[in-house]
Design goal:
The protein is an alpha+beta fold. α6 (118-144) packs parallel to α10. The radius of gyration is 30 Å and the shape is globular.
Length: 809
């Protein structure tokens, strides 16, 4: 066991322990019990805490990577600026919804004293997040339950049940990390009628807005307040309800002043999220089918929901696969979390044991969340998904975290109501502890595929952009380039890309030549926009069926409403599809032509084709034409479909002859062995300002950058033209040519170009954004808000000793 890591974790948790000490009436015994349970947790999960297990489901290249990159850049003195590696370059803060900013930056500052490597620091960071989340639940339980022993009983399944294992497996704590504190402030507002607590509820929502899918927390709070209203309505109609009444809000001068002071903290906490919203509202989301963030879309990946049969996982930890010898964690199950049969039994029994207002409020909250989380994405769930934008309700499974906490809370209310002596309830808490420890033993706490640390390559500004696709590699999401420090042009249909520049998305679909190769090239000319004869992209009918496909979430069947053509391939034989395009006048135009291919297993050869003459035989309506290769010419070099079982897209562009008003296009596919291939999404579009053949490398160019937001390029230019930088255009970039400010022009609607004359020149690029200032403002506001809220809890306990005695605190 590494003593330095243990000291680090203890120092990080000290503020939480001190807050618990104050809120619990300066009770040393309460802090000792909580700390003792935390120590048990560390011992149970020591392989993860102390670095024998590092990463977990989808996190080697995904959820660990953004944290590690941010920490690496902070350690190197970078501002939170430009990320040049994936997707044509983009501001790093577009990934900010994956960060718990205040906690992460506090950890980074603390690590300046300890100097831990990134993988150890991140393991300790996640350990802190899990223990502190349990601490937040402890504060909530202390406000709701009447008896101290019930508060500790409820903490046990939250801290030591399968909740820990599942959150290691799936990244669900980020959107709901602040749920206990938000529910606590909302509950205190209902209980005490103090409007300041309503302000703190808004504050926690503002903090969570910078995290992953903040709508989940809003949904939980909405369910709570609706439940309060329903319970009070039932009481007003004569229902025999006992217990806590809703306290009418008390508007006092001091309360109004406190709200006025909470408001700027809330605004500062929300500022980065608002700025990012402005940045991304016009971007497209491949995950949602290539539509803009503000538009409804389906996308390629169906949402992950919480089926009713998954609730067996509350009392049973399944295996990942039946053949595994060792029981596995919940990482692959997107389910409610294991807490053991005793809390579930008590929660079920509460339906007969409890009838007061507090219980019914949380019961109805649980029911409303289950309505949103269960079943296929229809009804209420579909409405929420379609009406929310930006970071939309992509999945329902994170709600399982709130569901599990609410079930534990109901079980505690049941235990509170049982006419048992304190010793018997203490025995129930010990039995729950024993069952949780027994149920979680023998499970790996991290992904079984990884038992080693990962390393980040040292920062080197990328000089080449490589074609890269999740379809072609065993890597989830597209942050692999940020680990290897290799710039990448990802797949146009990569359904793990949260958002992307629309112009970059179009370039990916046109031709990889436009987005790959040297990041800095010389372009002699930028073509002026051509007359708008018919510049829209056209989907070409496949020649066999122009019937729109039925609505389906199966991407293999739904390709922009067209049914893909199935080709039966014989070994070493070529099948060609010929498409006839006559809706656009293409004479003299630069044209993009692309098609997508999918095969269940085979590796295929793919070529895009064009007939040499405009008088090619049209495609019969009865079916597609199998055309000999000799009748067509290749438009692109040979591409290889790698047998991934997923759709891969190929594209090229060329100039149509001035005497050809129409053109025929083809797709040739062949295989070494017998196979089936599907061809779909065949597109033809006119390029307005792209002339890839005018671009030439700059062999003598020297690129100097130790900061991704400041880049210097020195090169000898053969003649007057443009230095083209194949990174996404952003208004935050400014350039200087030999020390004189110059204008950055959009190239191909996506990238950057600076006009240069012949000879040797130095071009400096600098990226500036208010986001780093907003991030530090957020950091200060959140830490101050946490401290102030803790003080408000302490003051609330001191102000209401009778209520504290009746309801716990």
């Amino acid at each position: 066991m590494d003593l330095a890591k243990l000291v680090f974790l203890a120092v990080a948790l000290f503020p939480l322990l001190y807050i618990i000490y104050l809120v619990r009436g300066r009770s040393r015994s309460d802090v000792a019990v909580f700390a003792g349970l935390a120590v048990i947790w560390v011992l149970v999960y020591q392989r993860f805490v102390f670095g024998q297990e590092y990463v977990f489901h989808d996190t080697l290249w995904d959820h660990h990577a953004p944290y590690a990159i941010l920490l690496q850049w902070l350690d190197s003195g970078f501002s939170v600026g430009w990320n040049p590696f994936p997707d044509g370059g983009e501001p790093l803060y577009l990934l900010s919804n994956l960060f718990l900013w205040a906690e992460l930056l506090a950890f980074w500052l603390l690590n300046r004293l300890f100097g831990l490597p990134i993988h150890d620091l991140l393991n300790l960071y996640f350990s802190y997040i899990l223990i502190s989340f349990s601490g937040f639940c402890f504060l909530l339980f202390g406000a709701v339950f009447r008896q101290r022993i019930t508060t500790f009983y409820a903490l046990v399944p939250v801290l030591l049940g399968g909740l820990t294992i599942a959150t290691f497996g799936q990244y669900v704590l980020s959107p709901l990390y602040l749920t206990p504190l938000a529910l606590l402030s909302a509950y205190l507002f209902v209980r005490d009628g103090a409007v300041r607590y309503l302000g703190w509820t808004a504050f926690f929502v503002a903090v969570s807005a910078n995290q992953y899918l903040p709508q989940y927390l809003v949904l939980v709070l909405a369910a709570f307040f609706v439940s309060v209203g329903l319970v009070e309505l039932a009481a007003a109609l004569g229902a025999p309800l006992v217990g806590l009444r809703f306290a009418m809000p008390r508007w006092t001068r001091s309360g109004a002043l406190e709200l006025a002071l909470i408001a700027p903290l809330t605004g500062a906490a929300l500022a980065p999220a608002l700025y990012v919203h402005r940045e991304v509202h016009d971007l497209v989301s491949p995950t949602r089918g290539g539509v803009r963030i503000s538009e409804p879309g389906v996308g390629h990946q169906p949402p992950v929901i919480v089926n009713a049969d998954r609730y067996q996982y509350l009392v049973h930890i399944p295996r990942i696969r039946p053949g595994l010898a060792t029981p596995a964690n919940l990482a692959y199950h997107h389910s409610p979390f294991y807490i053991g049969w005793l809390p579930v039994l008590l929660a079920t029994g509460s339906l007969l044991l409890v009838r007061d207002r507090v219980y019914l409020t949380f019961l109805l909250t649980l029911v409303l969340i289950m309505i949103a989380a269960l079943g296929e994405p229809q009804g209420f769930w579909a409405y929420l998904r379609d009406q929310t934008h930006l970071l939309y309700f992509r999945h329902a499974y994170p709600l399982a975290l709130a569901l599990t906490v609410l079930i534990v809370l109901l079980s505690g209310l049941a235990l509170d109501s049982l006419p048992l002596p304190a010793g018997a309830k203490f025995a129930v808490a010990l039995l729950t502890l024993a069952l949780c420890l027994d149920g979680t033993q023998g499970r790996r706490h991290a992904d079984a595929r990884w038992d080693r640390p990962f390393d980040l390559a040292p920062f080197t500004y990328p000089v080449v952009r490589w074609p890269y696709s999740r379809r072609l590699a065993e890597v989830p999401i597209d942050s692999e380039p940020t680990i290897t420090k290799r710039a990448a042009a990802t797949h146009p249909d990569d359904d793990f890309v949260l958002f992307r520049s629309p112009s970059y998305q179009q370039l990916l679909r046109r031709d990889l030549r436009l987005v790959t190769g040297g990041l800095f090239v010389f372009g002699e000319r930028l073509l002026p926009p051509l007359p708008p004869l018919d510049s829209r992209s056209e989907e070409i009918a496949d020649g066999r069926s122009q019937t729109a496909a039925t609505r389906s979430r199966d991407h293999a069947r739904l390709l922009n409403g067209r049914i893909p053509v199935a080709l039966r391939l014989r070994p070493r034989a070529t099948n060609s599809l010929l498409y006839h395009a006559n809706a656009m006048d293409l004479r003299g135009r630069f044209v993009e032509y692309s098609a997508c291919v999918e095969s269940p297993s085979a590796r295929l050869g793919v070529n895009l084709l064009s007939t040499p003459e405009a008088t090619a035989e049209p495609v019969p309506a009865s079916g597609h034409v199998r055309t000999p290769v000799a009748q067509v010419q290749r438009l692109s070099t040979l591409d290889t479909y790698r047998g991934t079982g997923q759709w891969e897209c190929f594209g090229t562009n060329f100039q149509v002859g001035a005497d050809r008003p129409t053109a025929d296009f083809g797709v040739a596919v062949w295989a070494e062995h017998k196979a089936t291939a599907y061809v779909g999404r065949v597109r033809v579009g006119v390029l307005a300002d792209v002339d890839p053949d005018s671009m030439v490398p700059l062999p003598g160019a020297a690129v100097d950058s130790r900061d991704p937001s400041r880049v210097r390029v020195q090169a000898v230019f053969p003649r007057s033209g443009f230095l083209v930088r194949r990174e996404n255009f952003h208004p935050g970039w400014a350039a200087q040519l030999d020390g004189v400010p110059v204008t950055i022009t959009r190239w191909s609607s996506a990238f950057q170009a600076v006009a240069v004359s012949a000879g040797r020149h130095t071009v400096d690029f600098a990226f500036r954004s208010p986001y780093p200032v907003l991030m530090w403002l957020h950091f200060v506001a959140v830490i101050a808000g946490y401290v102030w809220f803790a003080r408000a809890l302490v003051d609330g306990v001191a102000e209401s000793p009778k209520r504290r005695e009746a309801w716990g605190a």
